[in-house]
């Protein structure tokens, strides 16, 4: 039941004058499809989903599904710290025609591991869509422990995890506890190839927003056994990745897309523009990488 293998972009949500900029969103979608991106992840963390209303979120997802038109999978964010709201989003997203769900751990109320098992199983029981778990303790305060992942992987609708703990040992343990049919995606751009080397099948990436063709090439090289080429691209990306995460995501990556002429440099509060120091650093690394700005 793999939703995709390779490079999935955690797509930004462009704004203009406080509203969703659908013209810019369409340009981004077409660019990614043409560049070989293997899947689009709509309304995740990088898409500022936490500050979109439910109506806006579903509108962005429906628009994305329509414009992609089955050329590549569309996976939609359905995470919430309210289980019933995640269930509602999951059902509405299913009606939109999306191919799958990305469901981040509940945040702030910090569920126990037993609470996580109940939370995810309730959502998985409520939808027919395949679900990718999303573990990112640095943003939510909650880690999905390997034994919990093992238990959740028994549900037929829970088919993978986006692992952004940064803990390679933990990810290796997850790989050892789950079946080969359970997909592991890197949630950290600088660990994509290391994670793929222990069984991962790709990445749900922020940096792919600005270098989609290279990210697709890197993951494809690895999947096809061209390991040295994949490692070379991963190492080339490291300075750019550091700059893109110089401030809280998605502040720098949206600034980068603005420099490239794709979107307005606009955020939903409390997100705000990056400092000049970050902008200079980002600009320099983009030029060094070979990105036109």
Automatic annotation (TrEMBL):
Pyruvate binds at residues 46, 204. Pathway: Amino-acid biosynthesis; L-lysine biosynthesis via DAP pathway; (S)-tetrahydrodipicolinate from L-aspartate: step 3/4. Its EC number is 4.3.3.7. SUPFAM superfamilies: Aldolase (SSF51569). It comes from the Bacteria. One of its GO terms (molecular function) is 4-hydroxy-tetrahydrodipicolinate synthase activity. Keywords: Amino-acid biosynthesis, Cytoplasm, Diaminopimelate biosynthesis, Lyase, Lysine biosynthesis, Schiff base. It holds the Pfam family DHDPS. It is an enzyme of class 4 (lyase). It is found in: Cytoplasm. It catalyses: L-aspartate 4-semialdehyde + pyruvate = (2S,4S)-4-hydroxy-2,3,4,5-tetrahydrodipicolinate + H2O + H(+). GO terms for biological process: diaminopimelate biosynthetic process; lysine biosynthetic process via diaminopimelate. Coiled coil: none annotated. The active site is at residues 134, 162. Catalyzes the condensation of (S)-aspartate-beta-semialdehyde [(S)-ASA] and pyruvate to 4-hydroxy-tetrahydrodipicolinate (HTPA). Belongs to the DapA family. Homotetramer; dimer of dimers. This is 4-hydroxy-tetrahydrodipicolinate synthase. The lineage of its organism: Bacteria, Bacillati, Bacillota, Clostridia, Peptostreptococcales.
